[in-house]
User: What shape does this take?
Amino acid sequence: MNAPPAHDRTATTALAATKGFPAAAALFLFAMFCFISMDAVAKWLTGQIDLVMIVWGRYAAQTLLLVLIFGTSFPRRLRTRHVGLQTSRSLLLLTATFFFFAGLEALPLSETTAIFFVAPLIVVALAGPLLGEPIGLFRWTAVAVGFGGMLIIQQPGAATFQWASLLPFAAATCYALQQIATRKVTAGDAATTTLIFTTLAGTLVVSCIAPFFWETPDWRQVLAMLAMGALGGLGHFAMIVALSRAPASA
Assistant: This one.
């Protein structure tokens, strides 16, 4: 039996990919809801407790919740085929978290979030060269318009420009690279593996520096950290699954 022509196989692959778009879009929106809610909690904590403690609480709470959910299977789910890529992805997300929470300390939540939302545009710009995904004229136009809009809002060089606005932009860049890495690891690792690896790696790194900034949180701050852990875990799991079902540039 002859193999189908190459263009037919390409069309079939593209059609199969588009079937995952509705579910991926729904998961993406749910993830955004979780992240925005988590950011609001983090904003509430800024000024009350040190930045390092906020990041540590977010990761430690998520690790605790995942251990309670997966129990004895937690260590087994850490097995990965992409140790280096998972480690890089974890460090990128941790760096993005530090940059973003630092931005929350210096800027209003609305402005920090607005700047951070250039992350999807950066993903589209990088998905072509790094993932080999086709980026059409429409998407490139959207990227150009999006970046132009951000420049209009921030007005670099104007008297009202704040250097602190570079913090959420740096967070967006790290997060976009993390999403590219996520797209790569989903080819060989389960979503739970990626989530647990990232959470545990971040917790271990921040736990090494947290003692130097330690402030014992009160019960309200502990509840806020638990909320951040739950929202962050749900959001990142939804995002990982979404990126496994649709191209990163979608």
